[in-house]
Amino acid sequence: MNNVALKPTKGNKIANRQVISDTLLEKGKEDKNILVLTSDSRGSASMLKFGNELPEQIVEVGIAEQNLVGMASGLAHSGKKPFVTSPACFLSMRSIEQVKVDVAYSQTNVKLIGISGGVSYGALGMSHHSVQDLAVTRAIPGLDVMMPADRHEAKKMIEALVDYDRPAYIRVGRNPVEDCYLSDDYEFEIGKAVTMKGGNDLTIIASGETVRVALDSAEVLEQEGVNCRVINIHTIKPFDEAAVIKAAEETGKIITIEEHSIYGGLGAAVTEVVSQNHPVPVKIIGIPDEPAITGKTAEVFAHYGLNVENVKEIAKQLLSN
User: Fold this and answer.
1) How far is CA 191 from CA 16, 17, 179, 209, 297, in A?
2) Is the peptide bond before 238 cis (omega within 30 degrees of 0)?
3) What is the rounded CA–CA span in Å between residue 232 and residue 197?
4) Which one in 86, 141, 222, 253 has a CA-CA gap of 20 to 30 Å to 24?
5) How confident is the model at residue 46, as a pLDDT?
6) What mean pLDDT do residues 190-207 have?
7) Is the pTM of this model over 0.85?
8) CA distances (Å), 107 to each of 55, 196, 314, in order?
9) Which domains are seen in the chain, by residue range?
10) Up-side HSE of residue 85: CA atoms within 13 Å toward CB?
C-alpha cells in the first residue's frame, strides 16, 4: 500500500493504450515473436510508433475482427506471441465465436486487448459502448479477463502477459486516467487483488477506471470518520476469492463500482463469492439494464452514480442498517 496514490495527482496525460503500445515496442525489440495485429485501429490503439519501428511485427487486417482473431490464433499455433488490438465493443461481440473457439477452447497464446472500452467512446453511443464485455468474456472457459486501473498497472500487466502462455482479454479505456499508483515500482501478480487502502468499516471493490473513484470515495468518507478498505480487482478472472471473503468477514459490508452492466461483471463476481462463502450486504454500482447514455466519461459516470457523491451516500445507507 506504500505505492498507492491515495489522493489524485491531477495531470496525467498518458492513456493506458499508449503505455501498452510503448511496453510492447520495448518488449518487441527484444523478442521477435511478439506481434501486434490491428483491425484498421493502429491509430486508435496508439500503435503507429510500433508499426514504424517494427514493421515486420505488425499485421493490419482491416475491419474484419473475426479474421483478426482467427489469424492471431494461427500465428500463436506457429509459436508467435500475438497481441490483438481492436475496439472492445467489436472484439468482445463481433468476433466472440472466434474468441471462444479459436482462442479459448484451443488454448492459443493470444492476448486480446479491447481498446476504448466501457463508455469511453462517449458520443458514439450504445453501438460503441462495451459494457457487457466482462460478462461475456469471463463466462468463456479458458479465457482470463483483466482491466488495469491506471498507466502504471497497464505497464505491469503487459509485462506479465508477454511471458504468460494463457489466452487473455484485457480491456482499457480511451483517455488518460488519474494515477492510482505512484509508480510502476511494485510487484504485480495476475489473479491477485491489491488492497489499495486498509479499513474495517466497509469495503469498496473496483476495477479499471473506477479504482480512482473508489480511492477518492474512501478519502472523503475517512474525513467523516468512516474507515473504508479499497480493493483493486485488476484480474476479473482468475478471481481472487480469498481477498473478497476476507473483506466480507472483516468489514461486513461491500460496495462494488464498475464501468460495466450491473449484470455479469465485477459486482456479479463479488456476489457469487460472498453469497456462497460469507453472506454480507453488497451494493453494485454500475450501468443499469438500459442503453447507456451518450456523453463524456465523467458525464456518464455522474449520470449513473459512478462518482464520489453517490458512493458516499450508499456507504452511509449501508452503515446505518
Assistant:
1) 20, 21, 21, 18, 27
2) yes
3) 10
4) 141
5) 85
6) 97
7) yes
8) 27, 33, 41
9) 16-171 (3.40.50.970), 194-312 (3.40.50.920)
10) 30
